[in-house]
Structure formats: structure tokens, C-alpha cells
Amino acid sequence: MSVSFTAVDFETANRSPASACAVGVVRVRDGEVVERATWLIHPPEGHDRFEPFNIQLHGVSPERVARAPHWRESLDRLVEFIGDDVVVAHNAGFDIGVIVAASRASQLPVPGMRYFCSLRLARTSYQLPSYKLPRAAAAAGYTLENHHDPLADAEACAAIVVDVARTGGFTDMNELASSSRVQIRDLEPEDAPNHDQLVADATF
Questions:
Q1: In a domain, 43, yes or no
Q2: What is the spatial distance between Cα 28 and Cα 121, in angstroms, rounded to a whole number?
Q3: Distance (Å, whole) CA 144 – CA 188
Q4: Residue whose C-alpha is closest to residue 26's, from 70, 88, 69, 68
């Protein structure tokens, strides 16, 4: 027996966290991956400019997302996949920030969820020169061959959490969080923003 959770990784079209263009999700039950999914996303209007640097990084281009689902459909699918799980991500503030920013940009309610950072966990669990995802995943016994592919990154993130949980004999995320002193945080749900809030966000 080991931990259960859902690992998530987003890629973005540009520096805006609202510019989600791809996502990978991995469901883990008792330390084993039981389901995987990945899909492209058409970024929200106003955040759909693709920077050459980002395209080179992850290979997602405007042409590839031309017929991809928009954020509304993607968010529904994501929330359904996650269910009541704790969401795990490497540098979770970024990925949770994508959910918040893309939802606000699309005038959708921000969903509530609990989330946990595998980057913080790696820093408390391994002695490494770098805690970037490929190096931290390697310490967990996972070879990340396609970094910035969202599904591969989600699997690498999951491997870190599973490895630390198994090494420590932890059987749930609360126990792992308490022992590692890496807090499970809460994303509080928000109503859909009104026009004034959208203007304020755009000029922030």
C-alpha cells in the first residue's frame, strides 16, 4: 500500500499563466499509475499568442491547437479526472496558477482543490545539485526522456511522490505531508470574474 493522488503538468503558449496549451494527468492508486490522459488546449482569447521559445520547448504550435478544446471543456475534463484527489505538480504554484489564470481569463469559476508540490518534497527528501524535474525524477528511479511533454512530466512528478512515500512507508498523502513538512495547500473556489475584475487582471 502507498499513496493515491493525481499528478498534473501544464505547458503554456507564452509567459502568461493563462495561456494553457497542453496538459498531462496521471492517476495514482496505492503507488501505481492506473490511468493517464493528455490533450491539447486552445488557449483563452487574449492569451493565445505562441512565443517561439515556448514552441521550441514543448513542440505545441498554433496549428496543433487550432481545433483543440477551449479551456471550458478542458477544465471540465480536468476536474472530472481529478475528482477528490490531492493534485500533485512539480513547482505546484505554476500549475495551480495556470488553472486559476486560464479560468479567470475564460470567465469561469475557479475550482476548489487540494494540491501538493513534488519540488518541495524532493528538496526535503534528496540531496541533489539541482531539483529540476529530470534530476529529481532520476533520484526517484524514473528516467524522463521527453521533458516538457506534459504526460511524461506528470509521470515523472508522480514517480517522485511514490518513491518518497514508499521509502518512508507512508500510506496516504496527509501522512506524507506531515512527515516531510511539505504542506497540502487549498485552492479556494472562486466565482466567475466580472468585467471589472478581468480588466484589473489584464492591467496587473
A1: yes
A2: 17
A3: 32
A4: 88
